[in-house]
Amino acid sequence: MNQLCDFIVRTALISLLEQAFVIMIILKLTKKDLKLLNKNKRICLFGLIVTQAILSNVPKLIGIDQSVSLFINFVISFAFISIIERKYILRIFVSTIIGYLIFGITEAACVSVIMRSTGIAVKDLDNNVLLTFAVSLFERVLQYSILYFWYVKKAVINGKAVDIVGVITESKRRRNTAILLVFANFIFLLVMGHAFMVAKAFNGIDCLYSLTICTVSYSMPCISMYFLISISKQSYLCNKIYLDLLSEQVKERAIKALEIAENENDGKTAAAITDVINAFNFSD
After folding, report:
1. Residue-number span of the structural domain to which 35 is assigned
2. Total structural domains within the chain
3. Which residues, in sequence order, are CB contacts of 132 under 8 Å at separation 6+?
4. Quick check: helix, strand or coil at residue 156?
């Protein structure tokens, strides 16, 4: 009974988010837009994620090597996305490999950092599913931050594709803020990493407290970059709304001025106003 409860909790709290990340990375690498998938394909995709989440925990339940489920999930991911796409099979195969590599690297790096920082051992994770979930939180933050930054790099705002990196770099204030933020995050991680992993600041501290502090500390750079991008998007949107409104007002006044100039037979003024209208690319 305990094994079954452990299986269900691991599947629901840990594996579902893991497999969702892998599938979304693979779709992004294959340049398949999730928004363009119809309802049936999205339902099938959700079914794939649930199936893989269950399969990833079966080896632990029946006592076989974990690499077996990893291989099976790899094959299922490749086969399913190939059926959806029905072409570019080589690209899908390579994307699936890269997707699982990204997942494996981020998982190994995050778990290693958290375990070295808190002193948690592998046997502790094997025996406590809630502790495993807590350790995986930093991993989820990093993985879904990668997805977020990747997906919003070319965001669609008001029906128009916008390069968010361009939005940040074209403004001197936002560009300097981004550079300062990256530098500050780098220094912050160095200081925290030294304090947690080298100086062993959490020696003798309760595992839950040390894990919470580590997860929040290591997640701060991702959270700060998220806010920078969100604020930049909002700023761009506000500026666009303002410029569209201003453009509409200029258009209306320019057309009225053109009518007055034409009524007064003022050819030079009419020509100048027409040039303004053409420069703003106005149309009735």
Report:
1. 1-152
2. 2
3. 10, 14, 125
4. strand
